[in-house]
Write the structure tokens for this entry.
Amino acid sequence: MRRAQQLGRYHLLDRIAFGGMAEIYRAKTFDANGHAHLVAVKRVLAHLAEDDDFIQMLVDEAKIASVLRHPSIARVYEFARAHGEYFIAMEHVDGKDARTILERCRQKKKPMAPEHAAYVAAEVASALHAAHTAVDARRRPLRIVHRDVSPSNIIVSYTGEVKLCDFGIAKATLSKVNTKTGVIKGKVKYMSPEQALGRKLDHRSDIFSLGACLYEMLTRVPPFTASNEMDLLIKVRDAKYRPVSELVPSTPPEIEAIADRCLTRSRAQRYQNAAEVEADLRAFLRRYVPNYSRSHLGRYVRKAFATEIERELRMLEEYVLADEVSDDVGENLIAPRPAPDQPDFAPVVVPFQPRPTGTHEAVSESASSSIDFSDGESHTTVPRAEGPSRFGLADDVHQQQTMILDPGRLAGRRPPQPTINGVPPGRSVGNRMLPPIPAGRAQPPPVPPPRRQPGTAEPPPARPAPSYDLSDFGDEIHREDTMILDRARLRR
């Protein structure tokens, strides 16, 4: 057994990422009803806790991400200080980042399929457009520029969700730390030319970076590589790279054209907003793989990391909470009201507590009802809503009885009748009339086959029951039209 380490409202489990500024843990916490949830906790390294500019940068990150509401942007719950440490609590996405997926592609010497690359890039483009067009409570534009769109900040879940995360160096009107002209921030390989030159940036810089990610997904290699950072900056500044089709001749020309337009050196010649990128990528998907859905991406990631998934599940079962759980949840540093010169900012109440039940003050019902988790799809991180849902159902929709609606049956085809050994009730078998089956009663057992008379031929063997590949059944059944059966209504 391993003991989890408590940090504020969260119990740290395994470390899932480590960098020069912070380390990220998978953590367990509880909602007001005692239900457990997984979150990701980014804990600041000790030597940076005294750096006021760095801490303010993290405050900016938490503020920016907490005001964004989009299915493809990882939620941020709080930036807090507890037990003498700083940390950000954010949505946990059960999957792998695109950098890890690309490393697996390089190991197998096979690039990501064009349809998967197009879908991932389209989801990121949708998230970027939401960030670029975000406004404050007074409808004033926040002018957010991510500035660090790269494979390590794109997470793909095992169910096919795509999340953009880490607004750590994003620039917005919420930011208090100003970047001086000429100062370069971000990963050089995925920078835009204007970012490499230290110029003032706008949202089109993120579009170039997205193009660099798309290029790498299609080819397994970044568009710009060099033996040292200075040469790499020169290559990024000139925006010269080998054509996608030269590296992977089978690449469809339509998606190569999208990547090329994103990677244009001149901002005026690029896509002018991320929504245009998304539209072209979706149009490509509809032509290239008409029935593509996120389940295809999820299946691809699960197959690539099947061994890791099994190991992670076994590891999580080994953790237990500490014997003594503290009620000290720390101080949420993005909760105070903003300065008068800052846009309106209304932080969301943190819906978590360190205990499944106990003396800690739970989130009030009114506060819980004001927290909107409807845009999130990662069911391991989102607390379950209380009370009736928008459909009038108190329980989770997945717990309701459902019926698959057969379009052919609805068009007038008679539903199949119950039978006894393949014969409908009311029909005669020999000299015997089969009675109708009373409602609510089980069918009688099947009539045994007649004995074979001596001298007669051996009857042919029974046909084996057809075998089905059930691996994709969960994906197919979710595409069927369904109806929720309200048992209470049926009794009335």
